[in-house]
């Protein structure tokens, strides 16, 4: 088994380089929401780095399939966020506007350390257990790989549908100030986050065929989405913008796991 540092140090270099590039881009555009585009790409770059360190461009199907899954996830997410948050005509996301107020005169340096470097570190931590895919000599339970792939595509399709349903709802001027309850949003207040977690659950189960540590990213992502960055931020801003309409939505609809609305 190769030393972990031979994987980690190149991944650290790639992560820092990616975050620096995206920070400069955000500063030039005066829109630090570019970090949302960078999130999927930096995770993809980290895992591609692991693949190259292990295989040196030679084919190894177990790890190659894993990297291809992450590539599909990272590119779809980054392209969608670029089209909906970064293209000219889109204002900076409310989260980052609130950060600007907190950071004051040190806005650019604070964004670099507190947002870009922090998310780079988070990406390294989240992907570290996936090293089992690249360090292990062979799969112990190939059936788990199939289960993981199926879950991954369920998550990808579900998140794509949820994103498109919300995007179409927001684009309609008649829906300004209203709460989206269409399609998947009828059964969960955050179906996009739920299916994002299903994607990570699929990737983690794929990794478990090599070692049980592979399940950790799914656990970390659940905690992040439900208790730290995902649902709490979205709920806070929805309450500010929609008030009692969103409170009624909270009363009748599950926050994360989809289920039938309560009457």
Overall average pLDDT: 92
Count of strand segments: 0
How many separate domains?
2
Oligomer: single chain
Structural class computed from helices and strand pairing: mainly alpha
Specify the helix fraction band: over 70%
Radius of gyration: 19 Å
- Characterize the overall form: globular
Question: N-to-C terminal Cα separation, in Å?
Answer: 57 Å
Sheet-strand content, in percent, reads under 5%
Our count of helices gives 11
Please summarize the sheet with the most strands.
Answer: none
SSE order: HHHHHHHHHHH
Note poorly predicted spans.
none
Question: Could you explain how this protein is built, in words?
Answer:
The structure is a single chain. This protein is mainly alpha-helical. It is globular, with a radius of gyration of 19 Å. The chain contains eleven helices and no strands. Helix 1 runs antiparallel to helix 2 and helix 8 (191-208) runs antiparallel to helix 9 (216-228). It folds into two domains: 1-137, no CATH class; 139-263. The chain has helices at residues 5-29, 34-55, 61-86, 94-103, 107-127, 131-135, 142-171, 191-208, 216-228, 231-242, 244-252. 73% of the residues lie in helices and 0% in strands. The chain starts with a helix and ends in an 11-residue tail after the last helix. The longest helix has 30 residues, at 142-171.
